[in-house]
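Exam prep: given the inputs below (a chain plus molybdenum atom), describe the expected output before reading on.
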Amino acid sequence: MLIKTDNKGFTHAVPSEITPRGIYQQRRDLIKLMATGAAGAAVATWAGREAFAQAVAKPGKLAALPGAKSGAAGAVTMEKVTDYKDATSYNNFYEFGTDKADPAKNAHTLVTKPWTVAVEGLVKQPKTYAIEDLIKLSAQEERIYRLRCVEGWSMVIPWVGYSLAELIKKVEPLGNAKYVEFITQADPKTMPFVGSRVLDWPYVEALRMDEAMNPLTLLTFGMYGEVLPNQSGAPVRLVVPWKYGFKSGKSIVKIRFTDKEPRTAWNKAAANEYGFYSNVNPSVDHPRWSQATERRIGEDGLFAKKRKTLMFNGYEAQVGQLYAGMDLKKFY
Ligand SMILES: Nc1nc2c(c(=O)[nH]1)N[C@H]1C(S)=C(S)[C@@H](COP(=O)(O)O)O[C@H]1N2
Ligand SMILES: [Mo]
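Solution:
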């Protein structure tokens, strides 16, 4: 650290040398990663690693939607960003089929214009937003988050959006609003598997109010500097990076504030397997498989040694306090 002595004889760290909180947190995250071996072979310098994680090439396929690099703690990981091609060709979006390749193949039929998102329920300012207005409601930020699917794979994606909290503050929830429900599009004409009996459509997800207000919860309109491709949940989805991927509902059409814990799509399908909370937790197994390890899409081959899954997907410092005193085996 550079030290400067001013004319009053005090010594200061040069401002640019003071570690901002976000960076400090990233370092702690990396140290934790290294301790678990999850950081893999990447041992470049800090500066190098940061530049690496931030240098996200725009795929140049869809309309640009750049976001200012976010200073939010936890918004950057030091890991390699998943290739756009991998992130957009291995997906879960059951409205377009249950195979990982189906959404990329089939989601071209999704109609994303016009699109509205209705905010309703226990709020002072209910409103139906045109997607164009919702995008403009707050400044777009780019945040590099891990997404960990309950099935044991993960990706690292530069998402573009803003904290859901920004919208929540605008619509002013009433005092009795305890949960936020996310209802997604279910149109059998444009979504070929809506009508199949795998899930009870529409796909619904929900968060407790404090989870929804946590700055990490991202209302997401883009990825890799462009608007979301259909298979990734265009034109608006949620990203809740400390929870299993299925909590991040795609192609949202309604956001409803409620006083009761909503039933969610996967919870309705198999309550003993998919709880309301679904926080990433390596020590709470799925009834049919371990959750202790994961495979990074595009990097870890089928026979590669699996990576250790991190508590709250590595975001424990940011969200651990939300669950203080809760038995996470009971509230899985
Ligand atoms: N509407 C809807 N949203 C959804 C799903 C879905 O089937 N339908 N799948 C979920 C699951 S299981 C995961 S892992 C993530 C995957 O997001 P990705 O395909 O962008 O990686 O989306 C989630 N959101
Ligand atoms: Mo998932």
